[in-house]
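2024-03-11 09:14:02 DEBUG pipeline.ingest accepted 1 chain
2024-03-11 09:14:02 DEBUG pipeline.ingest length=261
2024-03-11 09:14:03 DEBUG pipeline.predict start
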Amino acid sequence: MGQPDTSPLVNLGLTGYEANAYIALTRRGRATAAEVARLAGVPRQRVYDVLDELVRRGLASLEPGRPVRYRAAAPSDAVGALLAEHRASLERLERDAVEAVALLTPAYSDGRNANDPLGYIEVLREPGAIGKRFDELQGTAEREILVFTKPPYAVEPPENVAGRELLARGVAARSVYERAVYDDAAVVEAVRSFIAAGEQARVVDELPLKLVVIDERVSLFTMEDPVAGASDLTIMIVEHPGLARLLKLAFEHAWEHGEPF
């Protein structure tokens, strides 16, 4: 006789060993644990645990004696017991689902109507995302853009297409550069092209951070890691007119003390 198909019993929640043991019992009026182990291919060290589980779940019964013997429950009773377990489990899940919905719905409803108190703050750390966002912000400038420029650059000055576009649109652009800018001929050439297009530029010995202020409404500035330094930058973008006006005062102070590029 070929091996029986245990998949229906396994699908109903039995393990492979339990399914094989139950099928073995159905083929005997009663059987000892040793006989079940041999007929079902269940390891001897596991067979008692397997049979005890069948008894617990109502798929078998035992007859006390020496040795103890086991009987299979009728298939209709055995399958009914397994279905009853699933129905009970489903009822518990349905109750838990109702409780979960009742618990989460008020918070969900409140969340739809709530505004993030820090929704005007954006934090970026990935260089590619920083460069893309910087280009986007330049594109939003309508009247004025003020910039503290120092390396490392979010967008290399020779590649700053968005900066050239805003100059072409007539946006007033002023930039303060660190004196070290003169060390890179390509950057110097790019700055000269910006100046020719309308940018005003000055130079100072050192800038405290990189900064962009657009139309006195949005600010972008760097926060260097105090340990890693400029190699690990966090970029803060804040859409807050009050902060933008404050940072513009800092820009104007640096501008007054700068030298023409």
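2024-03-11 09:14:41 DEBUG pipeline.report The chain has a mean pLDDT of 87.
2024-03-11 09:14:41 DEBUG pipeline.predict end
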